[in-house]
Protein 1
Amino acid sequence: MNAISKVEAAPLLKVDGLSKWYGHIPGCMDVSFEMRPGEVLGIVGESGSGKTTLLNCLSGRLPPSAGRIEFDTRRFGLRDIYTLSEPDRRRMQREDWGFVHQNPRDGLRMRVSGGANVAEPLMNMGQRHYGAMRQATLDWLSRVELDTTRIDDKPRNFSGGMQQRIQVARNLIHGPKLVFMDEPTGGLDVSVQARLLDLLRELVRDLDLAVIIVTHDMAVARLMADRLLVMRRGQVVETGLTDQVLDDPQHAYTQLLVSSVLQI
């Protein structure tokens, strides 16, 4: 999908007045935005800025204190996800979404094989043909540049970078409409980070995926995101096209973030 058609497309996600409070402490406050199919939205800010709280609210993992999150679901159309019943919301999360954790162990079942991890979303969607699922798994292991002869190895026998690739395949094999990524290259060696980022960018482009990615790394944001939300103390202080925000930051906090990267 090109940039013009993305702008013209109906929203995939509509967020209005989203807030989360922990007692008197704000996690995020009055966040509103829309995103469209095929768009990659980056959420950036320092530790404690509220970006992880926002991600968890958006992904249905943490109920907000106020506001609406409307998503164009396959089964129900555009619905506020928190008005869905718990079983329907879980089904939507399985069928329509993916979630790539920073630590791949949080997103994998460590006691079953890498292949079983990748195939599980297909089973959750009702597929039962073993041969077809195994072939799809082999295809995806190849797509994320893993040795397909290791399909029956358990995740603990893979390096951290390889585990992250298994997690990526697991979250894309079922054709989600939206994928959440929480610092997907955090904790990896620099050389491993670089290749994984290139791979993620290729997959996102080839599949025309909608992605919300949280990162504190401005280089990751520039490489992956079409548009940025900059957060500070739970509030969005600046938003815009990624190159605009990073090359000509308007808010003092964004200027500080960008200048700190340039000084490294």
Note: Residues 20 and 65 are 5 Å apart (CA to CA).
Protein 2
Amino acid sequence: MKRPPAVAGMFYPSTEEELRREIERCFLHPLGPGRLPERRHDGETPPILISPHAGYMYSGPVAAHGYLQLEDRRRPSTVIVVGPNHYGIGTQVSIYPGGEWVTPLGSVPIDMELGVRLTEISDIFSMDEVSHSREHSIEVQVPFLQYVLGEFRFLPICILDQSLPTCLEVGRALAEILKERDDILLVASTDFTHYEPHEYAAEKDGKALEAIKSLSPERMYEVIERFNVSMCGYGPVAAILEAAREIGSREATLLKYATSGDVTGDRSSVVGYASLKIERPR
């Protein structure tokens, strides 16, 4: 079973050469880290990442800050990407059921054994390909991972039910996996405030980011509700915050925040993007 790209040619280029150039442009962009990653993979365990998922033109430079963190870390054997379900199709918490995902940079095999292990830990997960058929929030992470890591196995998890109890349950199951294995990279995919003036977006997002940095999903939900933060992937973020907290991590570090207005110059109606990392305890 092969899952073809759903947003190639829209969110990122549809040919291998153009896509590689676009990823490199993101790393070298003024809003990016300013250099290309060195492909050294012989260091410590990779961090947990939070990464944006808009078109590369808009959020790619911010995403590059997170993926640069992988250059001098041990190469993960499997990458778990948790993203929101934007389209309301499929099951509540869906693991893609086997095969491989295809991008212009090649195919990535699904770690089916790990998927089955998660379903053994918690019945909150189901195997469902429909949830993933159109979803971009997970797909846009894959070319960055292919560019930086080369070969790896992949486990996409798409969350439709972003209620706090559901996402805490997902996080506790992911924590069990992280306790069992130190060769896993965990990524949560989210954008922040949508379609508000830059100054309002930055202020609201700053409050949400403070909660995230403290590894408190409960506080993050309170901030989102109180200040009406239109953050689309709050559920995946809550899940990885709970996983990080369960394994003994202490804080998240903000690597970069920017809005689409920083890219286009139009700050009247923007979307917020952030990259963060969470170190696993040694």
Note: The first helix runs from residue 16 to 28.
Protein 3
Amino acid sequence: MSNLAYDSRVEGDTSPQDIAMMQSLRPVPRISIQAFCETDGVANPIERAGEDRRMAKAHLKVHMGGIPTAIEFYHSAPTPNLIILESRAEPKQLLEQLAELSEHCDPSSKVVVIGHYNDVGLYRELIRSGISEYVIAPVSMADIVSVVSSIFVDPEAEPIGRSIAFVGAKGGVGSSTIAHNVAWAMSSLFKSEVVVADLDLAFGTANINFDQDPAQGIAEAVFSPERIDEVYLDRLLAQCAEHLSLLAAPSTLERVYDFDPDAFAQLIDTAQRSVPLLVLDVPHLWTGWTKSTLVKADEIVITATPELANLRNTKNLVDMLKRLRPNDPPPKLIINQTGVPKRPEIAASDFAEPLGLTPMSVIPFDPLLFGNAANNGRMLGEMDAKNPVVSTINEIAHVLTGRSEIKTRKKAGLGGLLGKLSRNKK
């Protein structure tokens, strides 16, 4: 017996459950999708799904009018890779409409129906007739991305590697140093293959920090994207440790490095198919390609020092990334270089509260440890494995690989910081 589904979902922020579901989904390939909806309650989640980073390669268009509009539309237009249809019609009428639509559809096009009747018999009949999936309204944005992914992503495909982008709230805050040491820790602690990609082609320091001078590196890949595949990428990698490889930056000024927004996309996609962990050392810039790289990363880590300009920049980054990545967790925060003698500092709790984040780590100022490591081309763990900073780096590696969670710290008052930031903008 059919039961009409009357409940509806409130449109708003993505729920924690949906965000958790989205983290396990692979990116959807380059396909065309057209949706024909009858209600805003279904059209809106579909439109939001099209804005998600996992759907970045797909081309999605939403029409209102349901199946009758689709029938009229495909009288004179070719059908896309996927058609999503919402229908409030009763089962018999729905099947009749789909039969009429099938006369105008390419046999290779996939069809997903979003219906309002919870009917097992209808579901079986739809699947038998070649419909890829029947989903009962209401639907969420995560439901849409999940359905599309389940149809077009091969379940037998090799697992895709996780990309972790490190970026500094300002230049000189130590983001690159932390990125390199965390990558080394992940490779040595977990015996997992890790690739570090130094995206600062002009001034990158990964080659110095890892004591490497490769003849080729990331520049060859970026300037010859048509050549990039797993074999070519492997030739460009410099081996830094047993499980750690580096895509080194040339660190020269012989040419300028102006890139299109998607200049690094092919390289990152190929690297993620090659290794389980990809660490992206993103320079402190705001360009089309740095923005695109951060938006598409699986995880973002912001490093900041405890002073006001860093707080302002971090707040701007966190707010922007929340708008650009509404279906992902917020960035992770590392507060670095705390306890510099005679320097006025913002307490970690005061720094974190206006951001709405719990710092993943607070790292003290230790110029002797960091300076010796940098000058010798060694990682912190190689210089002094028992140092508390090394333990902190190891904890970061555990959090970023999902082996542990951020420890919650008690929050304190803002101390007028937001007011000061507001006054400075005037």
Note: Residues 1-11, 409-416 have pLDDT under 50 and may be disordered.
